Backbone:
């Protein structure tokens, strides 16, 4: 992780003045907003690869992933499962990808760190992340990389846990057959590596990404980020892509995993989507998504309360229909709070 010293802070503040995404967050450049809380801002991509293509970004200006401090990292990646769930619901999609490009060589076009969130379904023509074909890879280079990663990843993860202690971490997985393993993830080579250093982080016992809690989601992205740093430092990569696959689409069968691919100039990998030929009506799409994402940052108790009030309101409205109207037009339930809810529903439906 990059330490934000006063000098780095100064550089970031300078970069911020020129950054179009900081201007979008400030509201100085218009964009179709789909989500916002105290740390995250989400808008629709103006050149979507698929319908409902969202750009989620930290409100602070960070150029690449390693700059994001722990608190912001945990919030951003902790909220992702609920965000993906809301996005899938809004777009009626069966799967999703979360795509991160670190560095221009990996397809990063913005000076501001962005997360692409893509609702996916079969036949959506975005066939980039299947990784089904074997690529020609130098065997001795691959072996060297595996050796380097098996040595370094556990050390790097250990350093990470020293800075961010985790209560659940009790077991010692040193003699694992994977490059790295802990209670929650394994890090391994994918079935068909697309380049030397292509890694896969697989969460244990997880069926749907969107059901993961905040801590577990932040952890798999920490593991992916540390893999990206390891290939960046150890294999001389110039950038990296981090790609989460979940649910069903033309290039995924329901499995949840994160691919990490080190990138070099002219490596022949195609991991960035192309703008759709006929653009969807982003205004309508944004309204649909924003209708679902309000739930992302609701606290659990608050969510329960909201659901309870909604349920009560539903029961009340059924009762009102059955009962005869009283003098004010609304049947009394005998409970002042419920009467208030009933009156509010009545007022809203007029
Ligand atoms: Zn910015």
Residues:
């Amino acid at each position: 992780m990059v330490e934000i010293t006063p000098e780095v802070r100064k550089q970031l503040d300078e970069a911020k003045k020129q950054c179009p995404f900081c201007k979008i967050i400030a509201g100085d450049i218009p964009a179709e907003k789909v989500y916002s809380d105290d740390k995250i801002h989400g808008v629709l991509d103006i050149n979507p690869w698929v319908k409902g293509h969202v750009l989620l970004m930290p409100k602070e200006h960070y150029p690449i992933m390693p700059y994001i401090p722990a608190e912001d990292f945990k919030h951003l990646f902790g909220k992702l499962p609920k965000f993906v769930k809301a996005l899938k619901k809004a777009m009626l999609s069966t799967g999703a990808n979360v795509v991160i490009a670190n560095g221009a060589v990996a397809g990063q076009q913005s000076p501001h760190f962005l997360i692409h969130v893509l609702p996916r379904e079969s036949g959506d023509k975005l066939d980039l992340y299947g990784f089904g074909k074997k690529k020609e890879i130098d065997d001795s280079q691959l072996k060297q990389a595996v050796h380097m990663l098996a040595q370094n990843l556990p050390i790097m993860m250990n350093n990470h846990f020293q800075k961010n202690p985790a209560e659940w971490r009790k077991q010692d997985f040193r003699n694992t057959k994977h490059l790295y393993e802990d209670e929650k993830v394994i890090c391994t080579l994918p079935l068909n590596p697309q380049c030397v250093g292509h890694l896969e982080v697989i969460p244990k016992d997880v069926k749907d990404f969107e059901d993961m809690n905040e801590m577990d989601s932040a952890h798999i992205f920490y593991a992916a980020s540390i893999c990206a740093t390891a290939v960046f430092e150890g294999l001389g990569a110039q950038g990296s892509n981090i790609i989460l696959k979940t649910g069903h689409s033309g290039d995924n069968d329901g499995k949840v995993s994160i691919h990490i691919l080190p990138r070099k100039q002219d490596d022949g990998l195609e991991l960035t989507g192309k703008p759709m030929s006929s653009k969807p009506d982003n205004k309508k799409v944004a309204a649909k998504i924003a209708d679902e994402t309000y739930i992302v940052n609701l606290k659990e108790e608050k969510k329960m309360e909201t659901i309870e009030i909604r349920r009560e309101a539903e029961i009340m409205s059924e009762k009102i229909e059955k009962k005869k109207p009283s003098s004010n037009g609304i049947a009394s339930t005998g409970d002042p709070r419920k009467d208030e809810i009933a009156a509010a529903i009545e007022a809203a439906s007029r």
